[in-house]
Amino acid sequence: MASVTFDKASRIYPGQARPAVDKLDLDVADGEFLVLVGPSGCGKSTSLRMLAGLEEVNEGSIRIGDRDVTDVPPKDRDIAMVFQNYALYPHMTVAENMGFALKIAGVNKEERASRVLEAAKLLDLEDYLGRKPKALSGGQRQRVAMGRAIVRSPQVFLMDEPLSNLDAKLRVQTRTQIASLTRRLGVTTVYVTHDQTEALTMGDRIAVLKDGILQQVGTPRDLYAKPENVFVAGFIGSPAMNLFDADIVDGGLKFGTATAKVDRETLAGASGKKVTIGVRPEDVVVAKSGEGLPVDVDIVEELGADGYLYGHTDVDGNRVDIVVRVDGRVHPNAGDKVVITPQPDHIHVFDLESGERLSKKAVETSK
Amino acid sequence: MVRASLFSRVWMNVVLVVLAILFLAPLIYILFNSFKPAGEIFQVPQSILPKEWTFENYLAATSKGFIDYFKNSVVITVGGVVLTVLLSSLAGYGFAKLPFKGTNFVLLVIVATLTVPLVIFLVPMFLMENEFGLLDTNLGLILPNVAVELPFAILIMRASFMAIPKEIEESATMDGAGVFRRWWTVMLPMARNGMVLVVIMASYAIWGEYTMAKALTMDPSAMPLSVGLTLLKGEVWQYGVLAAVIVLAMLPPIIIFIIFQKHIVSGVAQGAVKG
After folding, report:
1. What CATH homologous superfamily does B61-274 map to?
2. Could you say which of A74, A84, A91 has the minimum Cβ distance to residue B174?
3. Which of A118, A156, B45, B182 is deepest in the core (most CB within 10 A)?
4. What's the confidence (pLDDT) of residue A314?
5. Is the whole-model pTM more than 0.95?
6. Its Gene Ontology molecular function terms (chain A) (predicted)?
């Protein structure tokens, strides 16, 4: 087992001015499950491929344990990767697929067979060892891809969106399997996904990337409760956080006709007279009337226990959309007018220009 | 609508049957003639089936140097096909998966050779082979045949390798496979359909090749069937013997087709499913 360190690692594709990954500084502790998440094109897969050795590191370095692997070829890095399309060898059986790396490494036949069988037991694949990949279901193929990585007992697992080819139900099931399996094996894992739900449910810590730049690293709770900038605030959480521009007034913030109390210290750091204010859908109190922000209800999504109210309000003649969590059984209906007020403890304030968090920051936590 | 489509389907079948008869009739005529005694071939009225079945034409054919020609053809074809498959799968892999500076230029030059008529090369080829003592040898026909077949074979193999997702190769790289092992154990088995196509294409072309064989062999003992066939007629045209020789010469391509037929069909089907 080993830790993984990105030390100001950059990747600049030939002919492109902007780096795909820009001076990435990231520490993954031994045995930790770290999720790299971000929208497509944010550099998360590139970062993973740099760690795998499939992508050149143009600046900085990457270490696995104490060893600098920046210029080490992939096969000598002692890592195993699970690809999005599984990349199974179609002409080999499941057993041959799983044992291929061992065969190349010169492991003898008996040991190979026993290690393959061991991994197959772990993944419930014993009955399929003689089959070719095309005779397997999507979920089984995914498990073979996992098995191929496990058999090698590497220092680090790399996973590049391994669940995105599965249907929704299987994805949820496999998600928990992978998370518990890697923890049981105690192998350091770097996992790439664009799905923030996957990130929140699987990761010990999450690293959010955008445009090749690391935005924030922290536990799922940190990222959700104390996003460090507007991007992370909007990216983590579903439905997304409501974000508006609000005026700084005496004693707090003014948004449309509503005001919110925010302490002076927080607002002291603002660069202008306006800030961005963020409120999660569940941190809003809905009332039929009274003080607050009047909202016209457009539609209510019922999800059983919860419902999500999608509405809009007018601020200085501009339409602003708002999402609010409501009770799944008792809730306003489309066409109703309601009044909402944010819970003061759960207001996130960001600088309008830089997008940086002005409210209390999360304490950097690591495992 | 249904009636109309049924009608057009019937017509389609009629056309196909007529075409099949047009193509097959001469072959069937030759096949049965090869079993007729010499006197019966020109008998009027003609009969399709031999009245008297005989193998004397085949016996006569095999005693007239046919064995040599046949052997030369087999050696040249097998040698040529093996070399073509080997070289085109190496080159195709390189072009598809190991791009280097000038890949496109080299590829363009290779494709450009397809447009040059073969005849232009005959004299230089003759002079070169004369220099190296390759005239009237099997190798002297294997090499130019490979040179002629290779450009198109490389294009086919390149396309087959390009169709393989890059993750498969990256996965093999991370599993510790070097470039040669990746080519041999992972990529080549996945490019099988392309290889089958190259085998069929090259073996048909080389087996039936006439121009270069005519130019580069003078000694009958070094000639392949395609050229030797013309010498087999002897002093007077022995049509029965000629028919037997033609039938024997057609056998290998037919056998190759039968062997690989399954692969051709499954290859097409696989492509259809995977899109």
Report:
1. MetI-like (1.10.3720.10)
2. A74
3. A156
4. 87
5. no
6. ABC-type transporter activity; ATP binding; ATP hydrolysis activity
